[in-house]
Amino acid sequence: MSGADQKLPQKEASLFKKVLRAYEQKQYKTGLKYAKQILQNPKCERHGETLCMKGLLLNYLGKKEEALDKVKRGLKCNLQSHVCWHVYGLVHRSEKEFGTAIKAYVNSLRIEKDNQTVLKDLAILQVHIRDFEGFCDTRHKLLIQNGGRRGSWIGYALACHLLNDYETALQVLSTCRGTEGDPNTPPNRPDPAASEMRCYELHLLIEAGHKEEALSFIESQSKNIVDKVWLWQTKAELLIEFNRRSEAQRLYTQLLASNPDNIAYVEGLEKCIEVFSSEAKLELYRQLKEKHNRSQIILIRTMSILPIGPELEGLLDKFLRKNLNKGMPPLWNTLKFMCASDPKKAILVDKLATGYLLNLEQNCKFHPDDREFEPPTTYSWTLYFLAGLRDWQEKHSSALELINKLIEHTPTHIEAYMLKARTMKRAGDPIEAAKVIDEGRSLDTADRFINNKCAKYLLRADQVDLAIERMTEFIREGRSTLEHLDDYQTSWFQIELARTYIRQDKRGHALRCCHQIAGHFEDFFEDQLDFHAYCIRKTTLTSYVSLLRFEDNLRSHKFYFQAAIMAIEIYVSLHDRAYQSQSEEFDEHMTQDMIKKKKKKQLKEQAKNKQKSKTASQDVGKNDSISDDKEQDKFEPSKLASTADPLGEAMKFITPLQNFAIGRIETHTHAYEVYKRKHKYLLMAQAIKRGMKIDPDNPAIHTCIIDFVLQISSLPDMDNTLITKIIFMEKSKMLAGSDPFTYTNEYLSKHQFSLPHIVAGIQSMHQLQPDNLEQNLENIITLDDDLQGITLEICVKVCKLLESKTFGQCTTQLKEYREKCRKLYPLAPCFNPIPPLANSVEPPKIEHVN
C-alpha cells in the first residue's frame, strides 16, 4: 500500500473499526489481534493508521519501545493522516514528553482542524504545562464548534480566568447561565452543577475586585447555591469590608450557633463588634461562654485574655479537673498556646497540676474537701499532663521522674512511653529515646502510628536495619521494604533515612533518598493530568483553580525543601572533596605545562569511560526486561556519589527552591555556597541580597556577607569593569558603607545576648583577624545565663567547630565548653568527655523488644 493510497478494503476497514472500538473499551489485546489481521494482508502491511493504532495498543500493554517504533513507521507511511499524528502525540504524552505531544496535536489539527477530540487533548496538555494563552485559544475554538454544551462555556471562562481576563470570564459565565438546568432536578431543589458555577462566579467577582457586585450577586443568587455555610461566611466577610457590621454580626452569630468551636467565626465576630482592648474582648467572650458553655475554643480564648487572678484560676481549675477525669491525652497541647503567650500562666497551671497530684496521692481526690473519689486513671493522666508541661519547660529531669512514676503506676500506658521517648530526644539522647519507644511499641504491635514513630526514632539513633524491620511489619511479604515505601511515597521515612546516611557518611545512599523524594513531587505534579478534564466535566471549578495554584507552589512543601537542602549540601561536599583530592594530586613542584598535560590526560580518560558507559547502557536498553533495572540504576548510590558535575546536580535542586521557596533564608544561603564554588560573583551578591530582604540580621546571612567580602578582595583585575563596579557597589551596600571589621563589631554589639548571632559573628571575626585567637575562643565558649537562643543544636554546632580545629588546637577550651554544656543538658551523651560513638563506626545496638 503506497503512501498516497491509504484506503483499506471493505473487510479490513470493518476490522479497523473494531480496533478503534476495542481501544475505546480498553480491550487492548483484542484490538491488537484485529490490527494483526489487517497487517497480515500484503496490500495493507504499510497502512499507516493501523500501524499507529497497533503501536498505541502495544504502548498500553507496556511494550514502550516496540510501540514507539510502530507509531513512527505508521506516521512515515501516512504523514497526511490526522489519526497518525494524534496517536503519535498520545504515545509521547504517555512518556510525559508534553512538548513533542503538543507539536503532534498541532500537526493533526492542520490536517483536520475541527477535530474536537484532538482539540480537547491539546487543551489538557496546554493547561498542564501552563500555556494559558494557547489553552484560551483552544477553548475558544471548542466553544465556537460546540456552543450548546455547558462544558464548552465553562472551559473558555476558566481559560480567561487563568489569563487574568476577569471581565471576559464573567461575561462568558453570565451568558452560560441561560443554557443550564437539569430536567431531573426537582423545581424546589437547586441543581448541584449550577450551584458550583455560581460559587465559581462569586469567587471570580471577589478575585477581580468587584466586591459590590459580589454582594449583589449573593443576594440575588443565594437560593441557587447549595453550600449555605460558605455563602454566609463569604457574605459576612464582604459586609465587614463595607462596614455593615450589624448584618455581618447576625451572620456570624448564626454560624457560631452551628459550630461554636470554629475559631474563624469567633475572630469574625470580634471584627464585627470592633473590639480591640482586652477588656472589650473579655466581655465578648463572657457573653459567648454563657451562650455556648460547651465550646472549648471560647473557654480557652477567655482564659488567654484573663489576667492572673481568682477568676482565671477558677476557670482553669474547672477545665483541668474535667479533662483529667475524662483522660484527655492532648490536654497539654490545648493549653500550650495560652502558656506560650504568658509564661506566668504556665506557672499557674504547674501549680494547680502539682496540687492535684499531691492530693490524689494522699486522698485520691483533686482537693481534700471534694466529696467523690477519683478513679486511678485520673492520677495517671495527671502525671502525664504534668510531665508534658515540664518537658515543654525544658525541665527534662523532672519530666522523666514523673513519667517513670507513671510507668510504675500503669505499665501499659503507651502514651507514657511516647512522652518519655520525646523527652529523651529533646534532652539529647536519641539512642535511649529509641529504646523507650520501641518498648512502648511492643505493648500494641497493631498500632501503625506508634510503629511509624518507633521507626523514626530508630533512624535518629542510626539503627537503619531495625527501623526497616519495624516498617516491614505493616508491609506484605514478597517485596523489598524500601521499594514498597518508595512506591507509597513515604517521604517522612526517606527524609529521616537520608539524615541517617549523612551521619554515617553514606552520601550516595542519602542522595538516592533525596532524589526519590524529588521524584514523588514530580509524580504529584503529573497526577493533576487526570483532573483537567474531570473538574470541568464535574463543574468543580473553584477547587480546580485552587488545585492548579497549589501545584504551582508544590515544591515549597517542607518535605521537598528538606530533601533539596540535604541534596545541595551533599553535592557541595562532594565537589569540595573532589577539589581537595585534585589539589593534592598535583605536586607543588610541578610546572604549569606538566599540570596541563596531566589534566588533558585525565579528561581523555573521563571521555573514554563516559563513551563506554553510554555504549553499555544502549546494549542494556535493547531488552525490555532490563528497562526497569535501567530505571532503577539512575538512583544507584555509587553513581550518584561519583557524579562528574556535583555543582550542576546541586543546581537542579537550587532552581526550584529559588522559584517556590524564595521566602526561606536557607534557599539563599545554600545558593550562595553553590555560586561561590562556581565563581559566579554577581549571583553570590544576588543570593545575599535576597536573603537580606528576609532577615538582614540572620547569622547565616552575616557569615555569607563577610565571606563574600573576603572572596572579592582576592579577585584579580577583571576585564569587564562594569561587573567589577556592580560587585563592589553591592559590597558597600551590604556593609552599610563601613569596613568588614567595624561591621562585624557592630553586629556583635547589637546581638550581644543572642548565642546564634555571637557564634556567627565570632566565626566572621576569626576569618578577618585569625591572629586574635584567644579572644575569639573566649567569646565563642561563653554560655552566660543572660544569653538567649541557647539550644542543644547550637551547642553541638559550637562543639563541632572546636573539634574541627577551625580555631586551631583548643583542647582546653573544648573540654571547658563540654563541661558547661553538660550542666545545661546532663542527659545528652554528645557532651561527654569521650563521646560514645567516637571510637566505633557502628552505634550501640538496640535490643529487639517483642
Automatic annotation (TrEMBL):
Top-rank lineage group of the source organism: Eukaryota
InterPro entries assigned: NatA_aux_su (IPR021183), TPR-like_helical_dom_sf (IPR011990), TPR_rpt (IPR019734)
UniProt keyword annotations, A-Z: Repeat, TPR repeat
Keyword Repeat: yes
Extent of Basic and acidic residues compositional bias: 621-637
A GO CC term attached to the entry: NatA complex
Region (Disordered): 589-641
Name listed for the protein in its UniProt record: N-alpha-acetyltransferase 15, NatA auxiliary subunit-like
